[in-house]
Amino acid sequence: MRTKKLGRTGLKVSEVCLGTMTFGNQCDEKTSFQIMDRAADAGINFLDAADGYPFPSTPETAGRTEEIVGNWLRGKRQHFVLASKAGMRMGHEPNEAGLSRKHILEAIDGSLRRLSTDYLDLYQTHFPDPDTPIDETLSALDVIVKSGRARYIGCSNLPAWQLCKALWTSDRSGFARYESTQARYNLLYRDIEFELAPLCVDQQIGILAYNPLAGGLLTGKYDRMKPPPANTRFAIGGKLYTGRYWNNECFNAVEQLRNFLEPRGKSLSHAALLWLLHQPVITSVIVGATSAEQLAETMRYSETSLDAHEIERCGNIWFDMGDVVEVREA
Ligand SMILES: NC(=O)c1ccc[n+]([C@@H]2O[C@H](COP(=O)([O-])OP(=O)(O)OC[C@H]3O[C@@H](n4cnc5c(N)ncnc54)[C@H](OP(=O)(O)O)[C@@H]3O)[C@@H](O)[C@H]2O)c1
């Protein structure tokens, strides 16, 4: 497994990161352990969690994923780069969500307790919080870094202008700065290329790509004429996932990609990962799975490669899709 530096930092992370948001809902603890064992065997040293997981997040189930990851990590913590996130709703009270100083300083201690560790390698803000000034959030994160509870901080789902504002706030105030961002990025969704990716290159911010298989659509396993099978992402993810990808443009693109790749002996999901890994702006691709077999299949990407023509054809599919209007959750 290749490793890369996280942005400008000295931290080395595997080019594939294991996402854990299925643990504790779609996957019980036993299956989650099997997935993490398989990931470790494949050389993955980078784990991504969030306090609000499993997906879909509810205050009643929030925290289960971190508990499972913490149980698995006992005795091997130092071998892994452990990332988690704050900001999702953890309870019903007004201050049990968001990025206020009060919530972040409570959230980190909750994450550390559930993960059975006294430090995170990377602590990330999950979503922008329009109610909290960015300097309040960053000053709280700076306290966390200075106290040793997190080695580095990162963000997620920030538009470029907000990340830029956060960077200048850290610079001006002498706070720890965001060293990475998580962003949705795959063959069917490439919006980061307009503003965010150029900013990250310029400022040496690592990009961690989530939804690399478009939540499973880029395995080619769905039929647009049939409802998604029970307990799959598109069945449990509601409008969030159907709004993102369940449309004719995405299904047509999947079909075109398969028609191109299959005669060449290439799998669609492997091509989707290899294309992302070919993008120099990406530090690590965060993959997800609901069984160890799925992860093993995904990881077979490393047994194949794409030539320049294949990279180009896969990349061109997005330009053929036109403007896809997404149905976003209110
Ligand atoms: N920062 C954020 O806001 C954010 C948002 C989303 C995700 N993330 C992170 O990114 C991680 C990965 O995201 P993701 O889960 O959306 O990634 P993904 O790779 O796009 O989708 C993974 C899902 O695809 C299906 N799948 C994977 N391999 C398969 C195979 N070989 N055959 C058939 N189906 C397969 C599985 O779902 P089914 O079995 O249900 O079909 C699996 O859970 C998450 O765990 C989380 O850590 C972050």
Shape: globular
The separation of the N and C termini measures 40 Å
What's the story with the biggest beta sheet?
8 strands, parallel, barrel
Alpha-beta classification: alpha/beta
Kindly report the spatial arrangement of strands forming the biggest sheet.
3-4-5-6-7-8-9-10
> Which molecules are bound in this entry?
NADP nicotinamide-adenine-dinucleotide phosphate
The tally of strands reads: 10
Radius of gyration, in Å, reads 19 Å
Residue share in helix: 25-40%
Would you give an account of this structure?
This protein has 330 residues and is α/β, with parallel strands linked by helices. It has a single domain, classed as NADP-dependent oxidoreductase domain (TIM Barrel). The protein is 39% helix and 15% strand. The protein is built from twelve helices and ten strands. The protein has helices at 29-41, 64-73, 101-114, 134-146, 160-173, 196-203, 233-236, 238-245, 248-261, 268-277, 292-299, 308-321, and strands at residues 3-5, 12-14, 16-19, 46-48, 81-86, 120-125, 150-156, 178-184, 206-210, 282-287. The strands form two sheets. The chain has an eight-stranded parallel β-barrel, surrounded by five helices. A two-stranded antiparallel sheet has the order 1-2. Strand 7, helix 5 and strand 8 form a beta-alpha-beta unit. The radius of gyration is 19 Å and the shape is globular. The chain starts with a strand and ends in a 9-residue tail after the last helix. The site of NADP nicotinamide-adenine-dinucleotide phosphate has 29 residues, from strand 10 and helix 11.
